């Protein structure tokens, strides 16, 4: 199994509010995380790094995550703790009022794969060379699409496309959406919307299916392509691919 992650400021923003990591525990189980922060005075990067640092260190200390149910409980429990910490930080630092972050995670063991998210950072699996989006965006526009008030085409360039309905730090209770995912995937891709707003699913597929590139080159190429198209946001990518026979 190979994995690689990278984050980039992009070409427009002055600093990077994204945080990303991939960690392994003693049993060789993987936790992948992408968090896209928001808020003034660099508060966004504080919120996103709180997620990645807390989840990453707690997971790496585990000997094993246990069952699927244990894993879901562990994710929700820790995210609840982080949400409380973000709210507390905002209360103690008035200049950071409004800070928050999205989070998308994938937890892979030899027995199961689960995804979890809050916000609009995305999780995909690669199966038979096709990318399939697993997570659902918690945005106003996505809500309107699901209720039939907007078409997918209208949503694509809607002026309120990035208005979030849910984010860590936005309310005292935040629960993850958790997805039980088929183990047959050959790759797992997590990203902030800095990638998906710049590249189509087909463009991302083309890069990750390129067998002439190693995993690091694939991730770097995705980020380069976003920047070539304007790089209007921070871009974060975490990618894991199974090797043949795994």
Number of beta-strand segments: 11
Low-confidence stretches: none
User: What best-fitting shape do the alpha-carbon axes yield?
Assistant: globular
User: What's the rounded overall pLDDT mean?
Assistant: 94
Taking the sheet with the most strands, its summary is: 6 strands, antiparallel
- The number of helical elements comes to 7
Give the percentage of residues in beta strands: 25-35%
- Listing every helix as H and every strand as E from the N terminus to the C terminus, the arrangement reads EEEHHEEEEEHHEEHHHE
How far apart the termini lie comes to: 7 Å
Whole-angstrom Rg: 17 Å
The helix-and-strand class reads alpha+beta
Q: What fraction, in percent, of the residue positions are helical?
A: 25-40%
Written description of the protein model:
With 246 residues, the chain is α+β, with helices and mostly antiparallel strands. Helix content is 33%, strand content 26%. It has helices at 43-61, 68-92, 140-146, 152-156, 193-196, 201-208, 215-228, and strands spanning 2-8, 18-24, 30-38, 100-101, 103-108, 113-118, 122-127, 130-133, 177-181, 187-191, 235-241. The strands form two sheets. Strands 2, 3, 4, 5, 6 and 9 form a six-stranded antiparallel beta sheet that branches. Helix 1 (43-61) runs antiparallel to helix 2. The longest helix is centred in the first third of the chain and has 25 residues, at 68-92. It is globular. It starts with a strand and ends in a 5-residue tail after the last strand. 43% of the residues are buried. The model has no long low-confidence stretch (mean pLDDT 94).
């Amino acid at each position: 199994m190979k994995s690689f992650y990278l984050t980039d400021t992009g070409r427009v923003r002055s600093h990077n509010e994204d945080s990303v990591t991939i960690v392994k525990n003693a049993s060789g189980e993987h936790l992948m995380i992408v968090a896209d922060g928001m808020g003034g005075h660099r508060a966004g990067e504080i919120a996103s790094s709180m997620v990645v640092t807390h989840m990453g260190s707690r997971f790496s200390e585990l000997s094993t995550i246990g069952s699927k149910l244990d894993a879901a409980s562990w994710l929700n429990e820790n995210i609840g703790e982080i949400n409380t910490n973000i709210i507390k930080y905002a209360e103690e630092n008035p200049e950071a009022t409004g800070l928050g972050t999205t989070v998308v995670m994938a937890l892979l063991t030899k027995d199961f794969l689960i995804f979890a998210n809050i916000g609009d950072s995305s999780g995909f699996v690669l199966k038979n060379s096709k990318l399939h989006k697993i997570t659902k965006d918690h945005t106003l526009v996505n809500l309107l699409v699901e209720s039939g008030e907007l078409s997918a085409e209208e949503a694509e360039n809607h002026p309120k496309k990035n208005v979030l309905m849910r984010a860590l730090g936005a309310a005292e209770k935040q629960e993850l959406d958790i997805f039980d995912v088929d183990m047959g995937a050959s790759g797992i891709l997590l990203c902030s919307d800095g990638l998906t707003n710049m590249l189509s699913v087909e463009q991302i597929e083309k890069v990750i299916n390129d067998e002439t590139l190693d995993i690091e080159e694939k991730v770097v190429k995705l980020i380069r392509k976003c920047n070539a198209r304007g790089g209007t946001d921070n871009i974060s990518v975490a990618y894991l691919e199974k090797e043949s026979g795994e």
